[in-house]
Amino acid sequence: TNEIAQSEAATGKKIVNYWLHGAFLTFGTKKKMTKSQGDIVTIQNLIERGLDPLAYRYLCLTAHYRSKLKFTWENLQAAQNALYTLREHMRRLSENLERKGKKTRKVKEYLMNFFKAVNDDLNMPKALTLVWKLVRNEIEMNSKEKYELLLALDKILAIDIAREVPTEHLPLKIKELVKKRERARKNQDWITADEIRNEIKKRGYLLEDTSEGIRWRKK
């Protein structure tokens, strides 16, 4: 294809061992996204909307390459929320690596299942499901094992899960309140935590406590 010819001419190297074309990418209610119709979305468009370009990669991982992928801004935002949840989980794991945990023998078994999914006609949706099972503590491992395993898996997923979740879009006062609420929750001071949540809501932001961590959005 043109992409292979261009890349190999530019680098002088073989680009990949396997080249797969995914099914059509549909945009909203249209049949497919095409350059000729002028309805394409660029990476720059994502950045201008405050979206992480890797959120699109995450979105692609949620669909099998033989299946059509529906692109909507809502789907992309949901993908970014999921990606940021993974990154927040990695941050919390990294803060607990010094805690001693009993070593398990689950890593080898987990990797075998993960690669079994990947090698099953590149079934990335199934592989991603296994990642979430690890994050949701459905598979027993200590924090160090989980952290190192997720880093290894990211060499395949390539979604940079160790990157810190950006909070620059939050006002400084909201950031401080979020941290204060996290401390209150850690100390099981639920009354204070609820009061802070209400204060944050009055300032125009909503917090959601999930099994994967805290999510926030503007009202």
UniProtKB/TrEMBL annotation:
GO terms under cellular component: cytosol
Name of this protein: Cysteine--tRNA ligase
Cited PANTHER family: CYSTEINE--TRNA LIGASE, CYTOPLASMIC, CYSTEINYL-TRNA SYNTHETASE
GO MF terms, alphabetically ordered: ATP binding; cysteine-tRNA ligase activity; metal ion binding
Keywords, comma-separated and alphabetical: ATP-binding, Ligase, Metal-binding, Nucleotide-binding, Zinc
CC cofactor: Zn(2+)
Keyword field contains Zinc: yes
Pfam families: CysS_C, tRNA-synt_1e
Domain tRNA synthetases class I catalytic: 2-80
GO biological process, one term: cysteinyl-tRNA aminoacylation
UniProt domain Cysteinyl-tRNA ligase anticodon binding: residue ranges: 169-217
Taxonomic lineage of the native organism: unclassified sequences, metagenomes, ecological metagenomes
InterPro entries: Cys-tRNA/MSH_ligase, CysS_C, Rossmann-like_a/b/a_fold, tRNA-synt_1_cat_dom, tRNAsynth_Ia_anticodon-bd
